[in-house]
Amino acid sequence: MSDDARARLEPGLVRLRAANPSPMTGPGTNSYVLGRDRLLVIDPGPVEDAHLAALLAEVDGRPVEAILVTHAHRDHSALAPALAEATGAPICGFGTADAGRSPLMRRLADAGLGGGEGLDAAFRPDRILREGERIGSGGTPVTALHMPGHMAGHLCFAWRGGVFSGDLVMGWAGTLISPPDGDLAAFRRSCARLRALQPRRLYPGHGAPVDRPAPRIDWLLSHRAEREAQIVRVLSEGPADASEITRRLYTDIPAELQGAARRNVLAHLLDLMSRNRALAETPGLAEARFKLT
């Protein structure tokens, strides 16, 4: 690990960054080791021998009470079984990778729409966490907050006025919302709820801590509103599908990000449909042409 991959953010809180930088993960996935005598590990990260070694060196033989997973994407959750085997700690999360999907998202999945960008289909927590549950003892307890949007089963964890925000709010870029795993309506609600909590600081799954959460969340919601307005303008010129809209709006991104951009557009189209602002011309929503109502 490079020197800046480890950072002591606060007393009793260390961030270890996995060496998995990419256009989707930014500088890499953040894992957090919380506590002094008894520990919690939040988002153990991807399967990577060096990262596992770094986590175990940080643990340094201290008891780990729980391994907390914000959501079942492989860059956050896949290392959990190996860390659990090494420490004896239970893996805690909302559920399997498809847990908590809305009826619309289940319908899309049943129709064959796969999200799956990094989905950890093998994820099986030892303990299911629900809204408001407290985990940990002594000076390190956190409270689970169900904050869907990036994924239906996405959790955040509140701690001493701060929040471990996973991929709901990141420190380097906007959040990918890819149906049927992601849900834009849920994302907006979760962002509004997180802002209302007035956290003093966010510890995201990627990027640096967010020291001014309210402006960051406002930017994310404003960015989504601007993208929706662009999509509505395209549809005002006539019916279009997600691929066509993506080509027209995302003209300056690399080819490897076009698929993610299309999923974001589809998320907007489904959200417009759920609010009766748009209609699909054909039953297959993933490939349908949409028109304004």
TrEMBL record:
EC number: 3.5.2.6
Record Gene3D superfamilies: Ribonuclease Z/Hydroxyacylglutathione hydrolase-like, Winged helix-like DNA-binding domain superfamily/Winged helix DNA-binding domain
A single GO molecular function term of this UniProt record: beta-lactamase activity
InterPro entries per record: LACTB2_WH, Metallo-B-lactamas, RibonucZ/Hydroxyglut_hydro, Sec-metab_biosynth-thioest, WH-like_DNA-bd_sf
Transmembrane segments: none
Pfam families given in the database record: Lactamase_B, WHD_BLACT
CDD domains associated with the record: metallo-hydrolase-like_MBL-fold
SMART domains per UniProt: Lactamase_B
Keywords, sorted A to Z: Hydrolase
Residue span, Metallo-beta-lactamase domain: 28-206
Domain of life: Bacteria
Protein name: Hydroxyacylglutathione hydrolase
